[in-house]
Amino acid sequence: MAQASQATIGDSEFDRDTAVTRRADGVYDIDLSAGWTIINAVNGGYLLAVLGRALADHLPHPDPFTVSAHYLTASQPGPAVVRTQTVRTGRTLSTGQASLFQLDEQGNEVERIRVLASYGDLDALPDDVRTTAQPPAIPSIDQCFGPDDAPAPVPGSSAIADRLMLKLDPATLGWALGAPSGKGEMRAWFGLKDGRDADPFSLLLAVDALPPTAFELGLSGWVPTVELTVHVRCRPAPGPLRVAITTRNLAGGFLEEDAEVWDSSDRLVAQSRQLARARL
Amino acid sequence: MAQASQATIGDSEFDRDTAVTRRADGVYDIDLSAGWTIINAVNGGYLLAVLGRALADHLPHPDPFTVSAHYLTASQPGPAVVRTQTVRTGRTLSTGQASLFQLDEQGNEVERIRVLASYGDLDALPDDVRTTAQPPAIPSIDQCFGPDDAPAPVPGSSAIADRLMLKLDPATLGWALGAPSGKGEMRAWFGLKDGRDADPFSLLLAVDALPPTAFELGLSGWVPTVELTVHVRCRPAPGPLRVAITTRNLAGGFLEEDAEVWDSSDRLVAQSRQLARARL
């Protein structure tokens, strides 16, 4: 795991792989990296970070405050176009829309994801913190387990595993040992493996980077996201993040996943909820 | 409270006040009712139901599964136009977009709300229920309190109060007595006063109809919604609903409100989360 030199925000693989190139007003090109795939699917949080960066360029405010994404079709590694639109600009917040498109085999443009988002300036917020939520109870990093610790590859791990520092709480690892807990919980330490610290865009990745809580509920199939909304509440402090995901309502073939992301200074920096389909 | 005859789904004030008239493909007219205002603001859940009904007409699937709304400017009672667009249609789900517009004093069209939503057919879902969440602990309706029970009008009550059966858990009513609990919780029995049972569209109202949790946190000002996402998970059974709202992260001038809606058969029928601004 030791790195020759630690990557930094703005100069890291994550930054390069989410960088969009402005072709025209509201039109951005990107080559979706195969480095952020799980099995063959491009990670939904990585895609959200790509859309988030395009909107950050397009809107007058720099930071995503709330981003709502509806996932339409499965993205593939390779060229994609992001189209952005300003919905409203205000003093404190601006709202935008973005869509990611790829070409299908017949050369037709297919929409992959559509996003509505409101942006602001995290650094302009007042300092008051009256959070009643508690950081997740999770053992120290060296007592948690990642793909590197498994005798064989952890089921579901993929290219993205090489880029993440992901250490799962053993209490939520039963699924990997064939003994799911039956509780809809997943907890982990999270970072980028090259040592790049977290920023609002990597928080968009963090909320969708853990194994599905459905695994601990005894489901083993794919759990595609229908909709994912992320609130970024604070610029994260340097150091590893703790991510806790909870599912309370698996019913009718769908489930919600609620994520909380805590930074090294015990600040709740992001909250997300997604609606996903459970293949029973 | 006694009604000469009970209203029904499809024949009630809520149905009439949320009914949109199709002017052309993807264009709907509505006269926003002053009956669903809080102080002078049109309730955000009522507006969501209006947008939800327009999308239900426009999309091939009937029921909102997940609706993400970004609130842009304050709506006024009176004429409005809803424009809808199909984003994608699939076998199980279809995704659409809708915006609500009104004219400003200069006659310019101003966008009030923009919504992305995925629709499906609740009646086509399998019967499996593996919900671990528990219904809220709330006293019986006759032990809870509504605007009718107050010696003077409850602060914040308005025209909408005449149309709702809203009975608040006394444990979350401290704010109305000048002694907020400091906990970000609000719980209530909820229904429509004319006895109309709940359906997916009135669930969109239910998640945004209680007093703000911020009141119990000791804030007294307006708490405007930035973004609200609702998941409708089941067609609600007849009878009153229980709504529990929780805030865990009041910080930096913003807070989240998480709502759960339970029906009379103890089914968790809707979940929502909103990001709101706290005027400190």
Describe, in plain words, how this protein is organized in 3D:
The structure is a homodimer of 280-residue chains. The first copy, chain A, has 2 domains: 110 residues, Beta Barrel (Porin), CATH 2.40.160.210; 137 residues, Acyl-CoA thioesterase, double hotdog domain (Porin, Beta Barrel), CATH 2.40.160.210. The N and C termini of chain A lie far apart (37 Å). Chain A is globular, with a radius of gyration of 18 Å. Chain A is 11% helix and 39% strand. The model of chain A has no long low-confidence stretch (mean pLDDT 94). With 280 residues, the first copy, chain A, is mainly β. Chain A has 4 helices and 16 strands. Chains A, B: It holds the Pfam family 4HBT_3C. Chains A, B: This is TesB-like acyl-CoA thioesterase 3. Chains A, B: InterPro entries: ACOT8-like_C, Acyl-CoA_hotdog, HotDog_dom_sf, Sec_Metab_Biosynth-Assoc, TesB_ACOT8-like_N.
- Point out poorly predicted stretches of chain A: none
What top-tier CATH class of the largest domain in chain A fits best? Mainly Beta
Query: How many domains in all of chain A?
Result: 2
Give the rounded overall mean pLDDT of chain A. 94
How many helix segments of chain A? 4
Which structural category fits the helices and strands of chain A? mainly beta
Distance between the termini of chain A: 37 Å
Q: Do you know the CATH architecture of the largest domain in chain A?
A: Beta Barrel
Chain pair forming the biggest interface = A-B, 53 and 53 residues
Domain Acyl-CoA thioesterase-like C-terminal (chains A, B): 154-276
Protein name (chains A, B): TesB-like acyl-CoA thioesterase 3
Domain Acyl-CoA thioesterase-like N-terminal HotDog (chains A, B): 33-119
Pfam families (chains A, B): 4HBT_3 (PF13622), 4HBT_3C (PF20789)
